[in-house]
Design goal:
Helix content is 0%, strand content 58%. By secondary structure, the chain is mainly beta.
Amino acid sequence: QVQLVESGGGLVQPGGSLTLACAFSGTIRGLTAMAWYRQAPGQQRELVARITSGSNRYADSVKGRFTISIENAKKSLFLQMNSLQPEDTAVYYCQALVGEDAYWGQGTQVTVSS
C-alpha cells in the first residue's frame, strides 16, 4: 500500500504562484512514476505533469509555467506553479504508479481568482 497526502492548495490571484506538495509513504518498491493530475468542475481528470527516472512530461497548457520535482530523501513530490490563470482552477491530485497499480491522494483545491 502507498499513502499519498497533498498539501499547498489555496486561493491565489491571477499571475500568482503556488507550490503543491505530496508526501508519500508505505511500500514504494517498484515505483515507476509519479504525477500530478487535476480535475475542474464538470471536467474529466487530466494529466498535468509526470516524472519518471528518465524524463518529465507536461500538459501543453502548463508547459513553461509548472515544474514537477521529487525529493526522495523527503519522500515528497512537488508541483511549482507560476503565472497561474483562472483556467488552472481545479482539484489537484497526486498519483503514484507502483508496478501496474495506481495510487491517489485525496486532492487539494487550487482556486485562481481576483
